[in-house]
TrEMBL record:
Function: An aminoacyl-tRNA editing enzyme that deacylates mischarged D-aminoacyl-tRNAs. Also deacylates mischarged glycyl-tRNA(Ala), protecting cells against glycine mischarging by AlaRS. Acts via tRNA-based rather than protein-based catalysis; rejects L-amino acids rather than detecting D-amino acids in the active site. By recycling D-aminoacyl-tRNA to D-amino acids and free tRNA molecules, this enzyme counteracts the toxicity associated with the formation of D-aminoacyl-tRNA entities in vivo and helps enforce protein L-homochirality.
Motif Gly-cisPro motif, important for rejection of L-amino acids in this chain: 137-138
Protein name: D-aminoacyl-tRNA deacylase
Protein's organism: Desulfamplus magnetovallimortis
Xref: InterPro entries: Daa-tRNA_deacyls_DTD (IPR003732), DTD-like_sf (IPR023509)
Domain notes for this protein: A Gly-cisPro motif from one monomer fits into the active site of the other monomer to allow specific chiral rejection of L-amino acids.
GO cellular component, one term: cytoplasm
Domain of life: Bacteria
GO biological process: D-amino acid catabolic process
Classification via PANTHER family: D-AMINOACYL-TRNA DEACYLASE 1 (PTHR10472:SF5), D-TYROSYL-TRNA TYR DEACYLASE (PTHR10472)
Length: 155
């Protein structure tokens, strides 16, 4: 799974001019699901994101997590995160999961964040969406479960 996190003071998503999700202080997450992704990766990513210390403390240091600041999430499905632009001029999306798998894991990720007590809003899976946000910092990070795997040392 791949995620782009943007720390925001406010954000919203709309479909056909109808707002489907809105948050104040927290994170916008653009979430992409690949062919080989699993519930285990969704769980790992959700836990990682809600515990990342990317909010300032009283000294201006990034020492507080989404949980610490009682922040909110706006999670947007984004298969284009798996776009491969190495060849030609048109991205290839062969590494993105099929819609049925992607939607199931996207919904599972959202369920996990809600179970952790995070107010979580969403867009509409597979829809053309307009996302509006005010980036705070700006703080923008990318996470990829393939890159987050523990590194094994050679003996």
């Amino acid at each position: 799974m791949k995620a782009v996190l943007q720390r925001v003071t406010k954000a919203s998503v709309s479909v056909a001019d109808k707002i489907t999700g809105t948050i104040d202080n927290g994170l916008v997450i653009l979430l992409g699901v690949g062919h080989h992704d699993t519930e285990s990766q969704a769980s790992f990513l959700a836990e990682k994101i809600i515990n990342l210390r990317i909010f300032e403390d009283e000294n201006g240091k990034l020492n507080r997590s989404l949980l610490d600041v009682q922040g909110e999430l706006l999670v947007i499905s984004q298969f284009t995160l798996f776009g491969d632009c190495h060849k030609g001029r048109r991205p290839s999306f062969v590494n993105a999961a099929y819609p049925e798998t992607a939607e199931r894991l996207y919904e599972y990720f959202v369920q996990l964040t809600r179970e952790k007590g995070i107010h979580t809003e969403t867009g509409v899976f597979g829809a053309m969406m307009d996302v509006t946000l005010t980036n705070s910092g700006p703080v923008t990070l990318t996470l990829d479960t393939e890159e987050l795997k523990p590194k094994h040392k050679n003996p």
